[in-house]
Amino acid sequence: MPTHSPDSAFQARRSVPDAGSRGGWPVRFLVAGIALTFLGCGKPEPAATPQMPPPAVVAVAAKSQAIEDEARFVGRVVAVNRVELRARVEGFLKERRFTEGDPVAVGDVLFLIEPEQYEAVVEQRQADVTKAQADAQNAEAQLKRGQELLTQKNIAQAKVDELQAAASVAKASIAQAKAALTAAQLDLSYTRITAPVAGRIGLAQYTIGNLVSPSSGVLATIVSRDPMYVQFPLTQRELLQARRDVKERGMDSKNVVVKVRLPDKTLYEHPGRLDFVDVTTDAGTDSVILRAALPNPDGLLVDGQYVGLVLESGEPKSAILIPQSAMQIDQQGVYVLIVDGESKAQVRRVETGPVKGANIAVTKGLEEGELVIAEGIQKVRPGQVVKAAPAQAPNEGAAP
C-alpha cells in the first residue's frame, strides 16, 4: 500500500496558487467590479424629460371689410296672374286655336265649343221676347179701351181692374223673356273660351272632339311672365327684429333690396323690392308670408320654382371678418382663440353678425389685425404657447 511522505504533501499544497499570489489578481478585479456595479445601482439618477414642441396652428389676421346687412331665405316664384281655363257650358270641343307654350294676348280665342245648339236657344229666346212685347201691346190696348168704357159707365170697375192686371203681367213677361235671352246669349258666348290675361299658355288637357263641361276640370293654364312675385316665410321673431332694425335706421321697409339666387348658384341680374306682408300668421309654423316683386323680361323666373333669396337693407357698413372655422361655442357662448404678443393662445368672447361665404362678421370682441386661430384649435389649450403660421393660398403648397 503506497504511502505519502510529508514532503510530498507539502509539495502538493505548494502547487495550488495562493490567493495572494500573482495568479489571483484577475479574480480580485472581477469581484471589485461587480461590487462597484451593485453600489452604483442602489441610487439611480433621474433621466431628463424631453420637452414637447409648441403645437402648430394656422392663424388669420382679423380684417375689416365693408359688408351689407343681409339675410338669406328660400322662396317660391309665383306668377302675378295665373288663370286656369275651364268650360262653363257643356259641349264638344270644336277647335283649339293656340300652340302650347306660346304667349297669348288678352281676348285671344283659345278653345271653341260647338256653338250651334246655343245659337238655336238664343233665337228661341229672341222669339219669346217678341211675343211678350206683342202680348204687352195688346194688353195695353185692352186696358185703354176698358178705361174709356168706364167713363161712359158701360163696363164694370172689376173688369177694368182685370185688364190692368193683365197689362202688368204682360210687361213682366217682357222682362222675363229678355232675361232668358241674356242667359242664352251668355251661354253662347261661353262656347268661345278666351284669354282673360296676357302670358304664356301651358299644356292642353283635352283635344278636339272631347266632350267637356264645368265638371271637366282645367282645360289649360295661363301664367303671366313679367313681373313675377317671390314669396317666402318669416318667423314672428325674425319679423319683429327686422322691424326694429328698420326703425332704428330710419329706413322704409319698401327700400329693402331683394336679390334672387338661381338654382345654378348665380345671382339673378334684376333685383326687386318688398311689396307685401301677409295679414295673418300660419298657426302651424308661426310664420308670416312676405312677398317681393321682381322684373322678369327674359323669362328666367318660372311660376312655382324655388329660389334662394338675399335681403339687403341699408348702406354697406364696416365689420371684422374671420373664418367660420375659428368659431367655438361653449356654455358661456361664442368665442375664438387668438395668439397674443407672447405667442400664447387666449380666449376672446365675441358677438357675430351675418355670414359672408366662408367668413363670418364679428360685431364685438375683436380688434382689426389680431391673429385668430383658424386651424389646429383642437390641439390648443388657453394660455399655451403655440407656433402660428399664416394660412396658405388655395394653390400654395400644392404638389407639382
Describe the structure.
The structure is a single chain. This protein is an alpha+beta fold and 400 residues long. It folds into 3 domains: 57-66 and 318-390, conserved putative lor/sdh protein from methanococcus maripaludis s2 fold (Beta Barrel); 70-80 and 225-316, Elongation Factor Tu (Ef-tu), domain 3 (Beta Barrel); 93-223, Helix hairpin bin (Helix Hairpins, Orthogonal Bundle), CATH 1.10.287. It is built from 5 helices and 22 strands. It has helices spanning 6-15, 25-41, 116-151, 157-189, 236-248, and strands spanning 56-61, 63-79, 82-86, 91-96, 103-104, 109-113, 192-194, 199-201, 211-212, 218-223, 228-235, 257-261, 272-277, 287-294, 306-323, 328-330, 333-339, 345-349, 351-356, 359-364, 371-375, 387-390. Strands 1, 16, 17, 18, 21 and 22 form a 6-stranded mixed sheet that branches. Strand 17 (333-339) and strand 18 (345-349) form a beta hairpin. Helix 3 runs antiparallel to helix 4. The longest helix is centred in the middle third of the chain and has 36 residues, at 116-151. The chain is elongated. The relative contact order is 0.18.
